[in-house]
Amino acid sequence: MIVALMQKNRRQIRSTGGDLLTIGYAIYHLPYPDRVSKPLDMKFFKFNTSVARSPTFINLREVSCRFKLPPGTYCIVPSTFDPNEEGEFLLRVFTEHENIMEENDENIGYGDMDAKVEKPPTPQEVQETDKAYGIFLKLAGKDGEVDWSELKEILDQTMKSEMQMSRFSKDICRSMVAMLDIDRSGKLNYKEFRNLWTSLRQWKNAWILYDTDKSGTFSGFELREALNAAGYRLNNRILNVLMHRYGNKKGEINFD
């Protein structure tokens, strides 16, 4: 088979001072494709070597090579030589016989939550929960409910230092009220607040597990792992939308 990797739109970028990226690719054999994650994770690359590679990583518009491989399932991984470089590309594969080719990406849906995410609360977390419930009862009016501003006050007092945050934003507090407000009162009653608090503790567990560099922010890779641990299966397209919508200029996303 012949594998060709071509860079797209680099001529337009050259007009603004850009240049061709240094590109290449590696080919991995998947003897049991149903047993590996989609897309392939760091664990796979740590314990598996490529069966073929492009001759070199080079700053040409196209890199192509001919390979002779036994029948099977393979994953072609294109990349730039330097990490964290972004660009559009076209991957073409020509084979002697008919083949089935598709993007090795996750199907959108729900999965099982990681046991470490929904673990029983520690004694310290029980104290934090009691503190949050106490503030709720203090702020709730005669109707026994809190609005978004009162919810913000509860979260700022109980979680901001733990999650390395300045404060929870107004928008996220309004969104949480809208999401958990089952009776559409515009506020959260005690039961609705308890459900929200349980979800927040689980998201906090996922955050601590997958904020591997302890930066207080998530990269796109860390976000995918955390969402998978929380039981959400999203593909690259949806993850890119989330990062562009909620991320900063550095490609990082905060807890809220």
UniProtKB/TrEMBL annotation:
EF-hand domain boundaries: 198-233
GO cellular component, one term: endomembrane system
GO molecular function per UniProt: calcium ion binding
Primary subcellular site in the record, as a coarse category: cytoplasm
Residues spanning the signal sequence: none
Domain of life: Eukaryota
InterPro entries, per database record: C2_III (IPR033883), Calpain_domain_III (IPR022682), Calpain_III (IPR022683), Calpain_III_sf (IPR036213), EF-hand-dom_pair (IPR011992), EF_hand_dom (IPR002048)
Keywords: Calcium, Cytoplasm, Membrane, Metal-binding, Repeat
Cellular localisation: Cytoplasm; Endomembrane system
Family recorded in the similarity comment: Belongs to the peptidase C2 family.
Protein name from the UniProt record: Calpain-B
Species name: Anoplophora glabripennis (Asian longhorn beetle)
